[in-house]
Structures are given as C-alpha cells and as structure tokens.
Recover the amino acids of this structure.
C-alpha cells in the first residue's frame, strides 16, 4: 500500500508551504488549497485519507467544510488546525465530524501524531486543550446535550 494521501486547506501561503514541507516527509500531499470550498472540491476529486484544514478561512470555514466533505467522503479523516483555543469551536469541530483539533502553535510536535491517531480511528486533541480540567468541561457540556462524539483522545 502507498503512502497516505493528505489534502491541506490553509489561506496563508507561508503557513501552507510550511505544512506541505512538514507533511511531505511522512505523507503524500495531494493538494494544498486556500479555502474551504476548494477543500471540499479537492477531497471529492482526490479522495485523500486525510484532510488538514484551518478553521478561519475566506468563504467556507474549516468546520463547515468538514461537514460538507464528510457528506460525500465519510471515510476521509479531518484534522482541524487552528490558532483558536475556544472550547466551543472544539465542540463544533468534533460534532461536525473532525478526527482531530490541533493548535498551530504545536503543529510541529502534534500534527503527525494527530493524523496517525485519526487513521487508527481515534480522536486527537492538542495537549494544551486536553488537560483533565478541559476534558472534564467538554464532557460536562456534551453530557448535558447528550452529544459526546469523542471515542478516544490521543495526546
């Protein structure tokens, strides 16, 4: 079997180039696009195993793109890569179906682990988001709403 294919959505060219370089050591980077709609189209066209996407992008954001692309490509694993520490965004991303939420500040250390965790069927949260008190808060919020999608957290 060949290397895992990845599509990246990042609207800042310098960051996109860094992500391509980081990922190319372990994965086949099939495309790098600049917005959520282009991500959805690339995933439909290329059927990668993994999509890595920023949340804040022009047009369709990464969370909406996750919902859209998983409707037609439910086997694709989506990793949200963002600067946002907001637990509500973590919740929205997980409910949209993402398999990981990685902070850009720790992408160099965690993005490859997040992809590996997602490919194994798990869910990855950045270590900064995953201390017990944060996980307890997430669980309390989901239990109140009976919507907890987390099957396992990789740190």
């Amino acid at each position: 079997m060949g290397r895992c294919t990845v599509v990246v959505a990042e609207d800042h060219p310098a960051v996109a180039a860094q992500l391509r370089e980081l990922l190319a050591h372990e994965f086949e980077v099939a495309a790098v696009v600049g917005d959520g709609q282009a991500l959805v189209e690339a995933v439909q066209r290329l059927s990668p195993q993994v999509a890595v996407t920023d949340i804040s992008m022009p047009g369709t954001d990464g969370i909406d793109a996750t919902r859209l692309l998983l409707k037609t490509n439910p086997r694709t694993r989506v990793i949200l890569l963002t600067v946002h520490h907001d637990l509500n965004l973590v919740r929205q991303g997980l409910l949209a179906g993402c398999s990981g939420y990685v902070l850009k500040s720790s992408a160099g250390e965690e993005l490859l682990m997040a992809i590996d965790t997602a490919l194994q069927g798990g869910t990855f949260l950045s270590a900064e988001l995953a201390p017990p008190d944060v996980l307890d808060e997430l669980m309390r919020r989901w239990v109140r709403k009976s919507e907890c999608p987390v099957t396992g957290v990789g740190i």
The chain has one domain: 5-154. The CA atoms of residues 21 and 29 lie 9 Å apart. The chain is about 45% helix and 20% strand. The two ends are 27 Å apart (CA to CA).
